[in-house]
Each structure stands twice: as C-alpha cells, then as structure tokens.
UniProtKB/TrEMBL annotation:
Name of protein: Mth938-like domain-containing protein
InterPro entries for this protein: MTH938-like_sf (IPR036748), NDUFAF3/AAMDC (IPR007523)
Pfam families: DUF498
Annotated transmembrane regions: none
Amino acid sequence: MELRKAHFPGSSPIDAYGNGGFRFADMSHRGSLLCLPSGIHGWEATEESALTLDLFARVLAEKEGSIEVLLIGTGREMRFIPPDLRAGLRERGIVCDPMNTGAAVRTYNILLAESRAVAAALIAV
C-alpha cells in the first residue's frame, strides 16, 4: 500500500469539521488542512503547535499575489499570531486573521463563494 501526502488539486468549500478532521468535495480528511489556491493540503499543525513561519512555509510558497487574506483557524480557542509570523506574511502581501477553527471555516466558505483571494490554515478540532 502506498501512502501519499493528502492533496486535493483545487478549491472547495468545507462542508463539515470536527471529530479531528474535515469534510469537503465528497471526501473526508483526518487532521489539519491548508486551503490554498494550489489546492487543499494536509497540514501537520495541531492545537499545541507553535505558530511559526516554518509551519506556514507552504503558504509562503504560493504564487505571490494569489492570497490576500489568510484565515487561521487556531483550534477550539482563538490564539494570537506571533509578531514574526504576522510580519512574514505581511511581507508577502498577506493579511492574516486568526479565529477559532469553526469561525475560520464559515468565513472561508463565504469569501471563497465571493471569489476572493482567500486561503485558510485550519487546525483540526
């Protein structure tokens, strides 16, 4: 059996979240997600993870200008974004907006439906 990194090549609204994962595009995924213009990717972040630039490397690797707003779903509770992470994202023209994961999913779906340049980093709850 071959295990591959989780990747869905496209954008899709998130249909459900909880129980440690997400449902989207008639599929389910256990664990956290990065919803980017290049697709939806599995992400190693947890509620205990330090929010560092390294953790967001895939976000920073996206085509410049393709993300204007990054919604960061920080888990069950909203966490503040460290100044160095906020500055690193800002250097790429990305405004980050932290909130709990449920609020981030709902906001992502709305902005995606409006065809906005949005991405989401969603920590599973």
